[in-house]
Amino acid sequence: MDTESDVIYWKDKEEIILKVRGIKKYFPVRKGVFRKVSGWIRAVDGVDLDIAKGKTLGIVGESGCGKSTLAKLILMLIKPDSGKIIFEGRQIQDLSEKELKPIRRKMQIIFQDPFSSLNPRLTAAQTIEEGLEILGIPRSERRKRIEEILELVGISKKDADKYPHQFSGGQRQRIVIARALSVNPVFIVCDEPVSALDVSVQAQIINLLRQLQEELGITYLFISHDINLVGYMSDMIAVMYLGKILEIGETEEVLKNPLHPYTKILLSSVLEPDPRKRKRFSVKGEVDSGDIGSGCKFQRRCELFETDCLQEIPLKRVKENHWVRCIKTKVT
Amino acid sequence: MRILEVKDLRLGFIQDGRIVLALDDISFFVKKAETVCIVGESGCGKTLTSLSIIRLTPPSAKILGGKVIFEGRNLLKIPEKEMREIRGKEISIIFQEPFTSLNPVFTIGDQLKEAIYIHEKISEEEVEKRCIDLLKLVGIPSAELRMKSYPHQLSGGQRQRVMIAMAICCRPKLLIADEPTTALDVTVQAQIIELFRRLKQEYDLSLLYVTHDLSVVAHIADRVYVMYSGMIVEEGDVFQIFYNPKHPYTRGLLESIPYKVKRKERLKSIPGFTPDLLNRPSGCPFHPRCRSSSDICFKEKPEMRYVENGHGVRCHLLEG
Amino acid sequence: MSTWQLLKKNRLAILGLVFLLFFFLFAIFGLIVTSGKNPIFNPYTIRLQEKLKPPFSKANKEVLSPDQIPPFGIYIFGTDDLGRDVFSRMLQGAWVSLTVGFVSVGISTAIGIIIGGIAGYYGKEHPFVDILITGMIDIMLCFPSFFLVLTVMAFVPGSIYTIMAVIGLTNWMGTARFVRAEFLSLREQDFILAAKALGLSEFRIIFRHMLPNAMAPVLVSATLGIASAILIEAGLSFLGFGVPPPYATWGGILSDGRRYLFDAPWLTFIPGIAILFVVLSFNLFGEGLRDALNPRLRE
Questions:
Q1: Strand-pair partners of B174
Q2: CATH of B2-90+172-318, one of 3.30.450.20, 3.30.420.40, 3.40.50.300, 3.40.50.2000
């Protein structure tokens, strides 16, 4: 980001629990017998974010935009190539595993695939118990706490000693949430938490997440390709494309008045569940991948493209609650 | 004019020596140039149904009864040889995963040509031209060059377009599409749906579209069949289903979409989870999750009753 | 369906398992009755006057001293060229074969897990480690295993311990590959990332989360490996590089019987068929195990 000002996106009185500045992660592309590096995939290419305590920041984007990589970077599951991650006021991107350990339990993650998210050899109770062990809860008190947490996520304690394959997809996701809660986190990254679930079950899990936020004050980073869902869950929404945030702002504002050409295309592609609202689509081109080169990430597909788009474009504040990375938008 | 009519289709699986019923009296039809959607979640049997039409069900599945009438013939009774002539030529199917549906070691051109050669004997130049025209039709840029590409060199959306090209190459009367856009990005999905719309308009293509996504259904369907646990619970035209849903499951499904829901409101959900097709609940299979179920729901399977023209529901609560 | 249920359905595998249990009991029985100062079945007693007697032939009590008479007065499997009771020798050899099988597989499995685990866990971030280990595996695999063992045995004093060590040290490659492959795919699974997010130590992640999930192919490989080890030992004994006399091993008995193939065929057939059945049973059970474990893994 251009400035390191304290409160970028949220209203002044909000407490910022997580700040991300200039985060980058490039993956090498290796070719040939000797695996020489022939190019770089810029998975995350300079992202700045703030998340206010107890709120939800939603990230929306299509495949290859880098949202999953971003999630893993924030949680330090992979190391960033450059940039800063400031959690609860402390910089964590350079800490060693040992130093990170006490911090890790405060930031947890819920993944998309309920099948591979749980160790098939541990029962639900054992999965949750690991977290309690980390907190240092003595053995005698653990069972009680396990049952409390299971109840919180809607799993009956009769099922505590069952194995993952004995549960349905929705129930497995609840156990994943239970595991995340077992260490009393303050921040949870939800990476497509309901995409692999049936529609009728998605609503259950979403309601659960909302309830937990209200009761426990948990902060969420909610990542999804489902725009309706992100719109419902988030206080603020960010649109990602090829590793960069192209637009960010208060959810209602961005969804009502999209400013970036990509956001406009994205929102116009959303199908509404109403037969009277059928649309004709004239979207062209495929989702980009690979190295775009310098300048705007959307240059290859943008109808408004001109040579000025080839320089680095900063995120501009166009309204009190709305930022865009495009030279074509006017500040109001 | 009905291109396809499925009547009382019953299908079961052999498990531990017994037969477990999976598809229970499935009946539906598709008219010429019509788009019919079968909508349901996982384990409802919609994919099984679409496979039954062209007899590509797994070997452990047994057809227990019913008819699949296509152009006057019952497809369940004709010899395999005749069935093979129908597949790909009269009735085509495309699947969800464009990644695994194409053979990675052959070029796009080879696979497309093969699809044509199986059913038609035409010259090499004609086939080549047909293929290029097809690729252009489905919106693949630089079609001549793409003929020599391999599947891994194309994106997911492009692969799906190639699948569609292969499916329509012999001008089938009916195209069955099983969740063709689920694995694709939102913007790509929009393009594929637009393609289907165009094909329907320009070629009078009848489309049987199987999906779990109600938004897609709202967008392309003329008529809809809602399936739950091996049974059709509601049927009607798209407006009837979206504006006057009668079955508790259909209603629950529509209400659980986060569309135009205020942030402070809760989403409405359906309690419980979708049952396994091999472990269907008794009576009305939705009864364990239904807020209004009563004794009869657990004992008896409800009959299909028509509440208005073409709008049918299978629910005990609507009787009497 | 659990692994056990699936396994039960495979008749051949169960047959193999049953036979293996029988073999175990035979070996343990053999250990008990052939050891000590005055074993019930004595594999060492030489009775030159009773040599090359066919199976089930009666002992000629007149020419034997009381302690030379075999139990029940019968040579159940006949006698060899030194008049030793073949049945007693088979009993002793069973235990040796079993020991060689299990210990050498234990060694090779342990080595395989460690090497494969390191390659699989650190290989992605440190490609050099992976290349080094994979290269080592490939080089070792170039040598036909039996000749490798034979070559080493030529330089090393032959004893049951060296044989077990050598077989163990030359057969870890299959296990290493399996473990490496499983670890590589497990690393990307979400539950491993979740464990890391919880703050679990690497040690714990490897031993509690990854290893138990990687054991399936190792188990199958170990089962088949035991059969292979027994065969290798039999082959070594046959060529004279095996466990030295007076210990009886099935391969040794077979080898000694070569010269009398036409006069006393039972000396080669009995150990040969016994080896055949044991190896076959291990193979059937091992393959049944592999098939039973597979569909569940695919779930």
A1: B91, B206
A2: 3.40.50.300
Tokens (6 digits) for C44:
């060492």
Each domain of chain C, given as residue ranges in start order, spans: 3-9+87-298
Q: Is C143 left (phi over 0), alpha (psi -120 to 50) or beta?
A: beta
C194/A100 Cβ within 8 A: no
Pairing between β-strand B304-308 and β-strand B206-211 as defined by DSSP bridges: unpaired
B269 part of contact set with chain A, CB < 8 Å: yes
Architecture of domain C3-9+87-298: Orthogonal Bundle (1.10)
Report the 10 Å Cβ neighbour count for A214: 10
How do the pLDDT tens digits run along chain A, 332 residues long?
Answer: 444 444 466 766 678 899 999 999 998 877 766 667 777 888 898 899 999 999 999 999 988 888 989 999 999 998 999 999 999 989 998 998 888 888 998 999 999 888 889 998 889 999 999 989 888 889 888 999 999 999 989 888 899 999 888 888 889 999 999 999 999 999 999 999 998 888 888 888 999 999 999 999 999 999 998 898 999 999 999 999 989 999 999 999 999 999 999 999 899 888 888 998 888 877 666 667 667 777 888 888 888 888 888 888 888 888 888 899 888 877 65
A228, A270 contact by CB (below 8 A): yes
Q: Which two tokens stand for residue B268?
A: 């409405």
Q: Could you give all domains of chain A from N- to C-terminal order, each with its CATH number?
A: 13-99+225-271+281-332 (3.40.50.300)
How many contiguous H segments (helices) and E segments (strands) does chain C have? 12, 2
Helix (H/G/I), strand (E/B), else coil: B191: helix
For residue B141, the chain A residue with the least C-alpha distance is A285
Instruction: Name residues 209-228 of chain A within 8 A of B (Cβ).
Output: 210, 225, 227-228
Asked if the Cβ–Cβ distance from A200 to B270 is below 8 Å, we say yes
Please state, in angstroms and rounded to a whole number, the distance separating the CA atoms of residues C78 and B281: 67
- Distance between CA A327 and CA A111 in Å, rounded? 36
Question: Which long-range contacts does C261-268 make (Cβ < 8 Å, 24+ apart)?
Answer: C263/C52, C264/C52, C264/C54, C264/C78, C264/C80, C264/C81, C266/C54, C266/C55, C266/C77, C266/C78, C266/C86, C267/C78, C267/C80, C267/C81, C267/C86
Three-state DSSP at B261 gives coil
- Of A30, A25, A59, A29, nearest to A42 by C-alpha is A25
Please list every residue in chain B whose beta carbon sits closer than 8 Å to the beta carbon of residue A61: none
Beta strands A56-60 and A236-241, pairing class: parallel
Q: Do C194 and A105 touch (CB under 8 A)?
A: no
Burial A143-170 (b: 16+ CB within 10 A, else e): eebbbebbebbbbeeeebeeebeebbbb
Chains touching chain C through at least 3 C-beta pairs below 8 angstroms are: A
pTM for this predicted structure:
0.81
The interface pTM score, or ipTM, of the predicted complex is 0.81
- Which token pair is B23? 């598809």
Across the interface, whether the CB atoms of A200 and B257 are under 8 A apart is answered no
